[in-house]
Amino acid sequence: HLLNAMAALGAYMLMDQPLEAAPGAAAAIRLSRRRGEHIQTPDGILLIDDCYNANPLSMESSLEYLLATAPERRTVAILGDMGELGPRAEEYHRRLGARLAALGVDLLVGIGPLAAAYVEGARAEDSGRRDRHLPDCDSAIAAVRGMLEPGDVVLVKASRFMMLERLVSALAGAAGGEPDKEG
Known about the structure:
Elements (H helix, E strand, L loop, with lengths): L1 H13 L7 H6 L9 E4 L5 E5 L5 H14 L5 E6 L8 H15 L3 E5 L4 H10 L6 E3 L2 H7 L9 E5 L7 H11 L2 E2 L4
Parallel strand pairs: 2-6, 3-4, 3-6, 4-5
Antiparallel strand pairs: 1-2, 1-7
Helix pairs in contact: 3-4, 4-5, 6-7
């Protein structure tokens, strides 16, 4: 996010805009829905809804953002399949799972056929992990609530075809969560 902000500031300056106005302009930016949107639930769970799209690089960036957002809280990554990766798709999912474990994300819930490779990769990095794989969004809606604890910071990210916004809505709706004005 820092590099994006710096690039935007550079463009702002190239347009001969007054530097003093940049913070106000940045504060007025509204992100597209489901692209890092924060939803705070009454029981203290922070959902990061980033289920608009996914690829290996955006997944890793989102995991780093999750950890930076919650340095003192339990982190949960609910990751669905990434699409359109070709014949190496399973390998990319496995590598991301290993990276997730190496970064120190506390719990992984993989959703979808390819997401089993996330869990395999995470367990290869750390055999003591208690991550879960679920076959689809419907089973996740039924199971995930019981895995979360008050105070968790939860990233939900997948390619669009996984439709994990249904899971986000179920988690936020069940707890009466609303979008956080800062996220």
